[in-house]
Design goal:
Two copies of one chain form a homodimer.
Chain A lengths: L9 H19 L4 E2 L1 H8 L3 H9 L11 E2 H12 L5 E6 L3 H7 L2 H4 L3 E8 L8 E2 L2 E5 L3 H8 L3 E4 L3 H14 L3 E4 L12 E4 L2 H17 L17
Parallel strand pairs in A: 3-4, 3-7, 4-6, 7-8, 8-9
Antiparallel strand pairs in A: 1-2, 5-6
Helix pairs in contact in A: 1-2, 1-4, 2-3, 7-8
The structure holds a DNA duplex (30 and 30 nucleotides).
DNA sequence: AACCGCTTGTGAACGCAGGAACAAAGTCGC
DNA sequence: GCGACTTTGTTCCTGCGTTCACAAGCGGTT
């Protein structure tokens, strides 16, 4: 209940980001206030769970009325640390990296790519998402110069660990890795892994077990797709 | 412990997919057997947890020796339902969709895109990842004709729900959604959400709480940048 | 053939997340 | 001004996931 210090469960943080997106949409459509039930419905979660998540921020609603859309949005943004723009670097501009660099969803949510890096001479100098692709040799200078603390790895798996080492050596402390390898990073560095094929394989398993499972399928397990992934 | 039927926790399924990837690498490098400790290290998990995960498949190791790499790999692949190729359709071939269509990691893990769809006339007819982009009007015929059960949505958020409806109406029962919206699907359809900006926001939160949390950072004298934003 | 070391598989405890029910609080209507 | 309704914030409880620790089993060695 302490508003800022006591650590918030990671699952809650992931949902807060979802609430933030929904609130942004509501604010754009002119809504002034919203109830927990409606917000939970739009986010795909349980209303009680949503209120519990918000309780980690301290009281921020008005009983009998609901939540102020803009106020709650700003409060969540502040807690998540996205109320100010954060500098990120992106390494690897193949298909996936280019998609990430050009993804408007990042810029609109407080993330700015201050450096795009690739090892291929063919890609260096290209402009993707409004920024030029730089050579890997400039990585260290850019990271230290911009004080970027977030790095995104979209390279082939073979070089991902090396890039991770260089990023951490340059001062990056949070890494989002799309390469299908398990990275090892020094203590104090957070690494989040997004493996697209893992997501598909989980789907395949659910599909298979549904086909084969006419016995268990009685209850229709609806796992309340909690889109954290 | 029942080898195949009793439902395996979803968290375990996700890790099994990671083990499968690691085992594939070990098999390629000629390794014949591997211990739980080594495999856990390569996958970034606890050895005891790994053994518990594998226990859901029934006994599949040899005490005192370890696990047979190829045998365990095939067994996991069979449980996950990826030992045979699965037909998938992909809707939305912007930057992200094109990256997905061209991502070799899918094909090598038992997923084949049997149909790429987009609404833009400019993209229809283009060949991406070896397959032509089709018009959305053909979606229903392709899904029913190929018996595809998995659909991937990489469209703008505005049309994602409509695509979801069309996919489920055509018979798709598993959906991987990259659009930043919460989809509602009929019961019996699994939806997994991958929101890239949510991942970054979780990183931002960890970063912020680390900056503010002077208690945890006891051991690491992080010289790094002088912390002026 | 028996011992010993190594590794798996499992049982138990701990902590955490999720869900439902209840009390507090504020607003709207009369 | 007062009552009733609405909605939040909290508390309890149930279940799951994770971790630790130990017994069981197999191979190699003497």
């Amino acid at each position: 209940m302490n508003p800022s210090r006591p650590r918030i469960p990671e699952a809650t943080v992931a949902r807060l980001a979802v609430y933030l997106r929904v609130l942004g949409g509501l604010a754009d459509s002119g809504r002034a206030s919203v109830s927990s039930g409606e917000l939970a419905g739009a986010a795909g979660v349980n209303p009680a769970g949503l209120r519990k998540d918000l309780s980690h921020l301290g009281p921020c609603g008005v009983r009998g009325v609901g939540y102020d859309v803009a106020g709650l949005r700003d409060r969540i943004a502040r807690v998540l640390g996205v109320e100010r723009s954060r500098a990120c670097v992106l390494v690897g501009l193949g298909n996936l990296g280019s998609a990430l660099a050009d993804y408007a969803g990042f810029g609109s949510r407080g993330f700015e790519f201050v450096g795009l890096f690739d090892s291929s001479p063919q890609r260096i100098g290209q402009v993707i998402g409004g920024r030029p692709v730089l050579a890997l040799t400039e990585l260290d200078d850019v990271v230290t110069g911009t004080a970027a603390t977030i790095g995104v790895i979209a390279t082939p798996a073979e070089v991902a660990q090396e890039i991770c080492d260089r990023l951490t050596a340059a001062g990056v402390r949070s890494i989002l890795n799309f390469a299908p390898v398990t990275l090892t990073a020094p203590a104090g560095v957070d690494v989040r892994q997004v493996d697209l094929s893992v997501e598909l394989q989980v789907l395949a398993f659910l599909d298979t077990s549904r086909d084969a499972g006419r016995d268990t399928g009685s209850d229709a397990r609806v796992p309340a797709v909690g889109g954290m992934a």
